């Protein structure tokens, strides 16, 4: 008599504590080994693209905060850049520099969150997260000083930023930037040689270079697979061609490389902010003169920037009225999450959570 | 996976954790002590100055939620009397666009952030609740004229010992616990 086996189906989520939001993973298992993974999305769908059609260009900025809510500043920048490209508005020099400073601080904060919760998924329950939140908290304090809130910034405007930074902001950034490399060393001391981290993440969830390129992955997920692709270097938008920084790449494309790439990117962001603070022009306008209910000329524009999680694109179509005719958002994590199956098949169910955590998913962006 | 010196990495991490035993705590006992928020905080309320308001309705047009209700009537030539001015803070997203758009500085964001209510109806702020008073003060968001009256923000970045910008606490209220405290 032969033993008959059949695959076992398992739902992880939408309320699983490790799913980083309301995402469901439909997993097919053979014993404990993963045969198939299918992400089921749509639990956080709010219809932001449709809502945008009924609101003016300025009124859409608070809604972009709610896409990737861990990196709201870069969403603001991307949307405003798309509208500026459409209407041909030029941002003043000081506004551009402040945008770079805020985007890079946001990248540090987002990567701290990503790395912290990746370690949380590995099983280092809450300890590394709290070390990293200590620095994230300082960044959020500075953002609160500039724009009044810690998460939903609504700081960028079409043509620049809503208001100039307060005078105590720049000394605070200088102090933070001076301290930050020491804190990253501290994380390395805590984690880089930790046997548990290495054993759980080295060689786990490998995304080969060719697969990463063919599915269109971007951000740290793509760079960990060894592709040197960073829009700040490849297609310098804003004023990124004025800064000297490197694009860290991994070698194998496993979970450890994705962790490592994020740690190195934080160091590079610190370098960029340092240079931006040096080159920042003194007093001056931060916003071009744009009326509140302005009408963009007929046409369309697409802007793609390097957000913390990958290439974030905004496509705006205008019919000449005060509201966009169509707004489409190209979210990086939606593309990156399609790599789940390539990474996870063949690994055990305990590794699935780690692989998923290493992508750094925010559901507000996937479902929009 | 094989390691040359097993346990070295964990020992290094533990050493770092051990160092933290000897630093001063930065915990704030929240309901009793509170840190100062940013001067530009967008608190969970709006503050309205009736004497400055002309009833032009720019704030209602700027609101992305269509959340501000303004009813006026014309009294003498070129004058509007505001009959109704309401904002439902249960639907408000506190983006501050209404404050930014007001041409007469008649609207400002508030400072309060503990605004949980038992009933949805209590979230609606009418004319009386919106009007600025001693307990209902404006923040400096887009209103730099209020900047000087507000205490400096307490930043985690600066240690308590460091001169100049210390962590500043509000005065300790009498320590009460339990519901209704």
Biggest beta-sheet profile of chain B: 3 strands, antiparallel
Report helical residue fraction of chain B.
10-25%
Spatially, the strands of the biggest sheet of chain B line up as 2-3-5
What CATH calls the topology of the domain at 46-142 in chain B is: Alpha-Beta Plaits
- In angstroms, what is the radius of gyration of chain B? 24 Å
> In what range is the share of β-strand residues of chain B?
5-15%
Average of the residue pLDDT scores of chain B: 79
**How far from one another are the termini of chain A?**
53 Å
Enumerate the spans of chain B where pLDDT stays under 50 for 5 or more consecutive residues.
161-181
Helix content of chain A: 40-55%
Q: Name the assembly state.
A: heterodimer
Order of SSEs of chain A = EEEHHHHHEEHHHHHHEEEHHHH
Shape of chain B: elongated
The overall average pLDDT of chain A, rounded, is 87
For this structure, the CATH topology of chain A is Cytochrome-c3 Hydrogenase, chain B
Summed up, the helix count of chain A is 15
Separate helix tally of chain B: 4
Structural notes for this entry:
The complex is a heterodimer of chains A (368) and B (181). Chain A is an alpha+beta fold and 368 residues long. Chain A has a single domain, classed as Cytochrome-c3 Hydrogenase, chain B. Chain A is built from 15 helices and eight strands. In chain A, strands 1-2-3 form a three-stranded antiparallel beta sheet. A three-stranded antiparallel beta sheet of chain A has the order 6-7-8. A two-stranded antiparallel sheet of chain A has the order 4-5. In chain A, helix 4 packs antiparallel against helix 11, helix 4 packs antiparallel against helix 14 and helix 6 packs antiparallel against helix 11. The mean pLDDT of chain A is 87. Chain B has 181 residues and is α+β, with helices and mostly antiparallel strands. In chain B, the strands form two sheets. Chain B has a three-stranded antiparallel beta sheet with strand order 2-3-5. In chain B, strands 1-4 form a two-stranded antiparallel sheet. Chain B has a domain of 97 residues: Alpha-Beta Plaits. Chain B has four helices and five strands. Chain B is elongated, with a radius of gyration of 24 Å. The interface between A and B is large, with 44 and 40 residues.
């Amino acid at each position: 008599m032969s033993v008959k086996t059949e695959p076992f189906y398992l739902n992880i989520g939408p309320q699983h504590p490790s799913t980083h939001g309301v995402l469901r993973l439909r997993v097919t298992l053979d014993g404990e080994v993963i045969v198939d993974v299918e992400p089921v999305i749509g639990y956080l769908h709010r219809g932001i693209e449709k809502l945008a059609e009924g609101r003016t260009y300025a009124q859409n900025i608070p809604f972009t905060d709610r896409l990737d809510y861990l990196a709201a500043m870069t969403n603001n920048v991307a949307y405003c850049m798309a509208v500026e490209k459409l209407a041909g508005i030029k941002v003043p020099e000081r506004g551009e520099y402040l945008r770079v400073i805020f985007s890079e601080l946001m990248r540090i904060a987002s990567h701290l969150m990503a790395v912290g919760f990746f370690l949380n998924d590995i099983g280092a329950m809450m300890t590394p997260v709290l070390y990293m939140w200590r620095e994230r908290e300082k960044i959020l304090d500075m953002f609160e000083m500039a724009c009044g809130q810690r998460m939903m910034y609504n700081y960028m405007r079409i043509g620049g930023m809503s208001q100039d930074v307060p005078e105590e902001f720049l000394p605070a950034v200088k102090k933070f930037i001076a301290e930050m490399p020491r804190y990253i060393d501290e994380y390395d001391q805590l984690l880089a040689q930790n046997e548990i981290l290495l054993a759980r993440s080295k060689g786990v969830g490998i995304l080969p270079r060719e697969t990463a390129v063919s599915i269109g992955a971007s951000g740290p997920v793509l760079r960990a697979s060894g592709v040197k692709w960073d829009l700040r270097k490849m297609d310098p938008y804003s004023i990124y061609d004025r800064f000297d920084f490197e694009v860290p790449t991994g070698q194998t494309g496993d979970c450890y490389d994705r962790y490592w790439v994020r740690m190195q990117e934080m160091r590079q962001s610190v370098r960029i902010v340092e240079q931006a603070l040096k080159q920042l022009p003194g007093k001056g306008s931060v916003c071009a003169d744009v009326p509140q209910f302005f009408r963009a000329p007929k046409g369309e524009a697409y802007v793609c920037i390097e957000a913390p999680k990958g290439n974030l694109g905004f496509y705006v179509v205008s019919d000449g009225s005060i509201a966009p005719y169509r707004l489409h958002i190209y979210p990086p994590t939606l593309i990156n999450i399609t790599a789940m199956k390539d990474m996870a098949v063949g690994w055990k169910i305990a590794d699935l959570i780690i692989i998923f955590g290493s992508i750094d998913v925010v559901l507000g962006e996937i479902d929009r | 996976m094989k390691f040359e010196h097993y346990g070295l990495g964990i020992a290094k991490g533990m050493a770092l954790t051990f160092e933290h035993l000897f630093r001063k705590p930065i915990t704030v006992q929240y309901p009793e002590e509170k840190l100062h928020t940013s001067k530009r905080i967008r608190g969970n309320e709006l503050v309205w100055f009736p004497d400055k308001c002309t009833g032009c309705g720019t704030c209602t047009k700027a609101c992305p939620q269509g959340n501000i209700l303004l009813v006026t009537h014309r009294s003498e030539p070129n004058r509007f009397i505001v009959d109704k001015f309401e904002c439902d803070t249960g639907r408000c997203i506190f983006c501050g666009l209404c404050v930014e758009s007001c041409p007469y500085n008649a609207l400002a964001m508030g400072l309060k952030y503990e605004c949980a209510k038992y009933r949805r109806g209590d979230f609606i702020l009418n004319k009386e609740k919106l009007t600025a008073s001693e307990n209902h003060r404006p923040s400096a968001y887009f209103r730099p004229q209020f900047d000087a009256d507000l205490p400096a923000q307490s930043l985690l970045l600066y240690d308590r010992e460091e001169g100049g910008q210390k962590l500043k606490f509000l005065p300790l209220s009498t320590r009460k616990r339990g519901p209704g405290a």
